[in-house]
Structures are given as structure tokens and as C-alpha cells.
Amino acid sequence: MMPGVSTLLDCLPADWRSGLFMGRVETAEGPSPILVEGGIAYDMSRVAPTAAQLVEMLPTAKAADGAALGALDALDLPLLSPVDLQCVKACGVTFALSAIERVIEERARGDAGAAADIRSRLEERVGGSIRAVVPGSTEAAALKQALIEDGLWSQYLEVAIGPDAEVFTKAPVLSTVGAGAEIGIRSDSNWNNPEPEIVLIVGANGQAIGATLGNDVNLRDFEGRSALLLGKAKDNNASCSLGPLVRLFDNDFTIDDVRDAVVELTIDGPEGYRLEGTSSMNQISRDPLELARQTLSEHQYPDGFALFLGTLFAPVQDRDEPGHGFTHKVGDSVAISTPRLGRLVNRVVTSKDAEPWSFGLSALMANLAKRGLLA
Prior knowledge:
Oligomer: single chain
Domain Fumarylacetoacetase-like C-terminal: 164-349
Mean pLDDT: 90
CATH class of the largest domain: Alpha Beta
Number of strands: 18
Distance between the termini: 38 Å
GO molecular function: hydrolase activity; metal ion binding
Keywords: Hydrolase, Metal-binding
Low-confidence stretches: none
Protein name: Fumarylacetoacetate hydrolase family protein
Order of helices and strands: EEEHEEEHHHHHEEEEEEHHEHEEHEEEH
Number of helices: 11
Pfam family, one: FAA_hydrolase
């Protein structure tokens, strides 16, 4: 178990007995989607062999249609990432503070030591104006022109206050890891951080059906050197975690709970270092459903998608050298939490040392066929 986590109960939402959840577990036969209702977990593999199919069957699929596994807090099966065939998408620079940090990364060219001076100059010029502007508005266009005239415009500010959101593919299908798994950073990265986020789960019809927690691990040195290195900064072995479960929207948990959520982050380092931060979703520049709409504007996702919504968290607290801010160390325990979605905990290793990703689409199809679930 991770530091501070002794049982599955430590990772569950405060009201897990009353909410409706879906997820995936590793059974003796292979991965199986589950529904959790009334605090009881049900194996849904005979109803819907994949989580993506289960999403499409909601709300007609009922937990009682599956095989009861027992009380969730006593479940003796490893939790997997709660998505499988869904495409994993992510939106960047959706908060004003994160926009400023991306500009700093770009201008520092991946040099953590140069970041402090750039941060001071940019915040002095921009102040609170970027936090109040509505993306794509007339005011946003005026702010853009002023920053261009001052030589401070950036491609990151373009997606922060321009009409188009940044939407990129975070991870290949089936490559995400779940609660309690090791999470990876590139072994050749010297400036990196977690990104604690809420993740929408969206069906093939474009409707958001629930939400979970995610860690969109970021390599600040790689992306700071060039935005064209975004793929290397974002998509590496074990670099994307989701979980512990997807909370499904119902009368008691709605998209407004996502809009109002405060996501907490705690990092405990092997040397005794501790960092705490928060990300308040009510400060997001674009509404979560608008981000989903832009993701779908000219694309289809027949198996649905998971959408990272971005983070307010800016890792500026020094860890080692003054002025160099934060970067991960192997052995860090990263905990992301919010009361209604639970707690996602992962331990940091290098992507080279993380468990290799070997269970892909071919392996999943072979497993489901062997179990007689593809008929």
C-alpha cells in the first residue's frame, strides 16, 4: 500500500455507500468492469465486457444484472484504471495561473533556475486581468494585443484566452494506470510535476456520464524547450493515472459538483519533503461541458473518451535550491483527492522502471474471447 493508505477504504469517497460508481478490477480471469451501488460491487463482465460498453448501456444496465462481489470496502481485487477502450484526451491551460506557468516554461526554455525572474515580470504586467477575461471575448482580444505590444504574447496565452481550447491526446487506449499503481516520469527529465485534475467520462453520444480523478503528469523541461515536444512531455510509460472509480451522475451528484469541486494535492517525498496544493474548479476559464463540446467539434469517439479538465495547481514551492521550484524525485507519493470522488494515490518512479505496458488491445480481445464474452 502507498504511504497513508492502509485499505481500499482510504481511497473511497466519503459517501461511497450512497453513490453510484463504475470501475474496473483485475479478477482471476482478467479485467472486468464493475458497478457499485449501495456500497456493493457487482461484476458486470457478462453484461458488458468492457467499461466502454458499460458506459453505452447506462442507465439501462443495472448493478443487479451483474454478479455480486460483496461490499466495496472489503473488495479483495486490485482496482485498475476505470477506463479501457475510451480515448484519453486532455485540455491544457484551462486556468489563468496555469497559463502564466506555461508562458514561464516556454520563456525559460526548460531552465528551472530562470523561471523566477520571468514569473515576476509577467505577473507584474498581466496582474489579475487574465484571471477575469472570458476566452474568445472582445476583452480577451484587447488583452492579447496589449501583450503582443509588450513582447509577452505566447502560444499558451492563445489557448488560455483565445477562442480555441487546447485539446490533445494524453495516452494510448489501455495504457492508463489506476489507484495504487506506480506512475512514471521520463528518466531524462529534470523538471517535472504532477497535474491533479478532474476527468470527465463522456459517452459516444457526447454526453458526460460521470467523473473521476486523474494525474496528467507533466515534464516542464521538455515542453518548455518546445511545444512540439508535448508528446514526449505527456505520453510516456505509466505517465497517466485515473481513479479510484468513476462517479456516475445522478440526482445527488451532477456536473455542478464538478464545477464546484476543490481538488487537493499532497506530495510526500522520501527525504521528508511535503508539498500541499489545491485546484479550485470554480476558477476554470472554460466550462467543463464546453471543453467536451470542443473535443467533439469535428471528431467522433465511438468508444467514448476520458477528458482531463486541466489544473490550477502551479508547482512553484522550492524543493532543493532556492528559486528552482518543485520537481519530482523517485519515491514521491502523490495523493489527489476531493470528497465526492475519493483519493487517487500513486508512487513516482521513472517510466523505464515502471511496470512495462504489455496488455494492449490484442491481449484484451484474446482474453475476452477466451472467457466467452465476445459472442
